[in-house]
Specification:
85 residues, alpha+beta, 2 helices, 22% helix, globular
């Protein structure tokens, strides 16, 4: 799972809501990847997310996530993941 320093997290903001981001738990990542495999996860454009994530950064209300793939945070607003309820 990706690791980020507290200083880095203090600088990052959700590209959609501009709220703080926190690192998701291993369980949250596993759950999201299972839902991605089921085809039930969409991004902000309503497109189905097909690639699993190695980690996610979640916004303050836990409704939007930025994927981490190959150690790179995906910070494009349209590609932000709408967290399944």
């Amino acid at each position: 799972m990706a690791q980020f320093s507290p200083e880095t997290l203090d600088l990052l903001r959700c590209p959609v809501t501009k709220s703080n981001l926190t690192v998701a738990s291993k369980e949250q990542v596993e759950s999201l990847n299972a839902q991605i495999a089921d085809g039930s996860v969409v991004n902000q454009l309503g497109q189905t997310v097909t690639e699993p994530v190695e980690g996610i950064l979640i916004n303050a209300d836990q409704k939007i996530a930025c994927a981490v793939r190959a150690g790179i945070i995906q910070m494009i607003a349209d590609e932000a993941i709408a967290m399944p309820s």
